[in-house]
Amino acid sequence: MHTTDAITKAYAVLDGGTLSEALARELIETPREYAMDLYSLANKVRLSVQQKFDACTIINAKSGGCTEDCAFCAQSASHQADIDTYPLLSEEKILEKAREAKASGASAFSIVTSGNGYKTPNREFEKIISAIRRIRAEVGIAMHVSLGILGDETLRMLKDADVSMIHHNLETAPSFFPNICTTHTIGERIETVRRAKALGMAVCSGGIIGLGETPAQRVELAFTLKGLDVDSIPINVLNAIEGTRVTAAPISIREIINTVAVFRLVNPRMTIKIAAGRETALGDWQGLVFNAGANSMLIGGYLTTCGRSITADQGLIRSLTGF
Ligand code: SF4
User: Fold this and answer.
1) Is 319 helix (H, G, I), strand (E, B) or coil?
2) Rounded to the nearest whole angstrom, what is the distance from the C-alpha of residue 75 to the centroid of ligand 1?
3) Most buried residue, 2, 7, 162, 299, by most Cβ within 10 Å?
4) How far, in Å, CA of 251 to CA of 261, rounded?
5) CATH number where 173 lies
6) Contact, 259 vs 173, CB < 8 A?
7) For a pocket test of ligand 1, which of 58, 63, 68 has the largest count of ligand atoms closer than 8 A to its C-beta?
C-alpha cells in the first residue's frame, strides 16, 4: 500500500476505529516526505482524547548491584559501567526528593529501585512502604513506584499505602526480549503487569527503542501493551552507556518520532510518555514528539544519566499547552 493510502486508512482511529498490526507496520516505516502527515494524524488523535500534558519525576532510591543481566542497564552487576552504586536511601532522603518534586510542579513522584523486585515483602520493602506512607501524608504528591517484579502480597501492600501507579517496563517486544536478557523472561514482567491490573491498579509500562529491534518489533511491543490495557506507556530511547553490552547503532530522529506516532494510533486513549534518552536522541526536535502523539514526559533526570533542567522542561510544557 502507498504511504498516503496507509495514512488515509489510519484516519479511522479518529472515528473510534482501530489500527491493524499490518497497517501499523507500514506506518512505522513512513518515509520523510510523508512523516508530517503521520504526525499530524497522531496529534489529532491525541487532541481528541487526551488534551492534558503531565510530567513525573523519579528517584533512583537504590542503585546498581542488580543480579539481572539486562543488556542496556548500567545497574547490572554483570556490567562495568561507571555509576554510583548504593543501598536503599534513607527515608529522610527519599522524602526530601519528594518535596523537591512537588515544588518543581511534577504531577507524580516515583520511587525506583534496582534489582529483580519484591515477589514477597522483606525488610527493605517495608522501609519503602513506610517512606510512601509518609510522602502521602506529609508531601501529598501522587506516588508511583518502579520496584521490579512484584507478587500479589507486595502489590496489595503498595495499593494499601495509596500508590496510584505501578511502573514496570516490558523493555522490548516479546520476540526480541531473549536478545537483551537471559536471567528472567518477559513472561515474568507481563505477569507483574497483569497482577497489578487485576488488583485495579493503574500501570505504566513501556520500553526502550534502539536496542537493535526492528521497527516491526516496536509495533509488536505497542500491541502487547494494548493487550495488557496499561494506562501509560513510557518510550525511552537507548542512550548507550559505556560498560553495558548493547552495540546497536543509534536510530534516527524520524524512526523515534514515527514510533511515538504509531504508539498513539495503536493506543489512542493511553498516556504516551517520552522518557530517558529524549535529549540526546532528539536534540532540538524533542518538542515535535508532543505534536506527534505524546502527552507526557519524565523530567528532572533519569536513573543513571542526567536530563535537562526541570526549569527548561517546565518551559517546554508551558509552551506546548499554549500551542
Ligand atoms: S533493568 Fe532492572 S532488572 Fe534489568 S539489570 Fe537493570 S535494574 Fe536489574
Assistant:
1) helix
2) 6
3) 299
4) 16
5) 3.20.20.70
6) no
7) 68
Low-confidence ranges of the chain (pLDDT < 50): 302
Q: Which of 73, 182, 184 to mutate to test the pocket of ligand 1 (most atoms within 8 A of CB)?
A: 73
Identify the bridge partners of residue 113 per DSSP, sorted by sequence position: 62
Q: Which domain holds residue 283?
A: 3-321
Alpha helices, DSSP H only, in the chain? 3-10, 21-27, 32-49, 91-104, 123-138, 152-160, 177-180, 186-198, 215-228, 253-266, 278-282, 310-321
Q: Are strands 207-209 and 142-146 parallel, antiparallel or unpaired?
A: unpaired
Residue (of 180, 194, 202, 172) closest to 269 by Cα position = 202
125 CA from centroid of ligand 1 (Å) = 17
**How many domains is the chain partitioned into structurally?**
1
Are 150 and 119 contacting, i.e. CB atoms less than 8 angstroms apart? yes
- Residue pair 293/312 in contact (Cβ under 8 Å)? The answer is no
Cα 72 to averaged position of ligand 1 atoms, centre (Å): 9
Cell 516490558, residue located: 170
Whether the model clears a pTM of 0.90, i.e. scores above it, the answer is yes
Q: Is 78 in the pocket of ligand 1 (CB under 6 A)?
A: no
Distance in angstroms (rounded) separating the CA atoms of residues 270 and 267: 6
* Predicted local distance difference test score (pLDDT) of residue 314: 64
Q: For residues 289 and 66, is the Cβ–Cβ distance under 8 A?
A: no
The CB of 60 under 6 Å from ligand 1? The reply is no
Cα–Cα dist 129/238, whole Å: 31
